[in-house]
Amino acid sequence: MRAGGLPLRSLGDLQDLVRRALLGGPAQGVVSLIAADGIAPEARLDIYRHHVVASLTAALETTYPVVCRLIDRRFFTYAADAFIRSHPPTGPCLFEYGAELAGFLADFPPCRHLEYLPDMARLEWALNVAAHADDAAPISPSALESVAPARVGELRFAFDPSLSLLRSAWPIDRIWRANQAEVGAEPIVNLRAGGVCLEIRRRDDVVGFHELTEADYTLRRALLDDERLDTAAEAARGVDPALDLAGLLGALLQDNVLVGFSLAPGPAAPA
Amino acid sequence: MGRDVTIGARPDGALAGAGIGLRAPHVADVITTRPHVAWLEVHAENYMGGGAARHALTRIRADYPIALHGVGLSLGGADDLDAGHLRRLRRLVDEIQPVLVSEHLAWSVAGGSYLNHLLPLPYTEESLDVVCAHVTRAQEVLGRYLLMENPSAYLRFEHSPIPEPDFLGEIARRTGCGLLCDVNNIHVSAHNLGFDPVAYIDALPAGAIGEIHLAGHSANDADGQTVLIDDHGSRVAPEVWRLYAHAIAAFGGRPTLVEWDTDIPALDVLLDEARHAERVASHACRGAASALAR
Question: What pLDDT, on a 0 to 100 scale, did the predictor assign at position A267?
Fold first, then answer.
């Protein structure tokens, strides 16, 4: 027992109490363990609490500048505070923090009316992933020459880890461009202009995105989800029966987005 | 520890002179202008992905000695070390071949949450065992010695019977690690917790000090009292320069780094601070030598 009569806490218990207090939980248990030294323990703990929330909010703003701009920094700070409490980081690399923000915003009552906002968060997360993903060398187009023609349909591909695919019911590409610092007079984006399919990736250290056709998106989405080539092709034909499959596959190889392939056995595509 | 461990923590190491903490806004500037500075230090966690940042670091490594400063191992955490994070740090160490690798006497992870702050420990025998076990484990995985940095503090726990310099000295003695003496942190903590910063420096084991950090701080109000905040957002304060001169006189010359993390100014301002650190250190060394000669 301590002199004050409180039981000694193990280091793990103490750190768990501090964690809860810093993330908005009750602080009484910690406060009683802090020496006053002329300044109230609550005020001392507040210095840490402020830094935790402010620094993580800054990290989220770095990853989500357009979301922040769209909803105004003050509201972003408010939303970030709630997000940080419910979704604190799980690791120390802050460029990996905030993947769940899109889902959080979709369920956050104060911004439910901004229906395109979660997709904008998804686009900014994909750009962030693209900026920091590990490097991977693409396969050369000739690498597939060893595959017997009869087995081409069984191919599965590994994609450049910087690549994401995103389909939105909103023109998020145009909204994103309209909210870049270098855009002078802000153009007006018609929210009813229709949706878009995007591929986001890094190329030669430059991060960007471009639009895909619905069929190309479907093909790449299926392959990214580890479907066989014949299954993916079938799905793409479902979108556009007249699609130029050979052309799309050629483009996939020329784009340097494939970093590996396999002929591992798996469920056969429906005939 | 294996016999192949590289000693990166010794005061007679390859680094001489003052370096600067390299932050993202200055990376392109450093690559294009190649400024005259003894060495550079980066936060390890900012370079654990691929892409432009990592490629830039590889280029800069060709021109400058690089020190890796970790902020995320949570060596004072009661939880097990994050083995995945430690592996990523090892990979970065293997690629960058840093001259120094440092971490903090602090914790930042509990219950699976990373709190993005270097949080204070109660200085007890239990904490000492935890930190020493983690430092030993990290040094085994990294294959080299760490430097452990003293934290800046805004609170101390009622039950914290071991003085911080003794705690640091005991970590160094038990694990073989070196120490990173952050002079600004000592000044900030001394003000906030009410101890004598000079006595603190004099209580550190001089032979274990492998690096010194300098940075600016700000003053804020808490509960009607002034607290100093270690925000790395301004030039080094005059009191910290004086304390630095005392540290150099006490330890001898040590690789010294100027850090600046908020309101980051032009690169020239940091370079100017580094040159000033070299002048202060050289003056302090001469002063110490002439005092010895008398």
Answer: 52
Note whether A179 and A264 are same-domain residues. Answer: yes
Query: A143 with A262, same domain?
Result: yes
Q: pTM of the full predicted structure?
A: 0.92
Instruction: Say yes or no: A262 and A146 in one domain.
Output: yes
Question: A85 with A55, same domain?
Answer: yes
Label residue B157 exposed, middle or buried (CB < 10 Å: 0-12, 13-18, 19+). buried
**Structural domain range at position A90:** 1-114
> Is B114 in Cβ contact with A11 (below 8 Å)?
no
Q: Nearest CA of chain A to the CA of B254: how many Å? A: 29
Q: How many interface pairs between A and B have CB atoms less than 8 angstroms apart?
A: 150
Q: Which of A47, A27, A46, A15 is nearest to B109 (CA)?
A: A15
Beta strand extents in A40-182 (DSSP E only)? 156-159, 164-168
d(CA B263, CA B35): 21
Q: How does the average pLDDT of chain B come out, rounded?
A: 93
> Which residues are CB-neighbours of A109 under 8 A, at least 6 positions away?
none
Fold classification of B18-293 (topology level)? TIM Barrel (3.20.20)
Instruction: From A84, A114, A144, give the residue that closes a domain.
Output: A114
Cβ within 8 Å, pair A134-B50: yes
What ipTM was estimated for this complex?
0.93
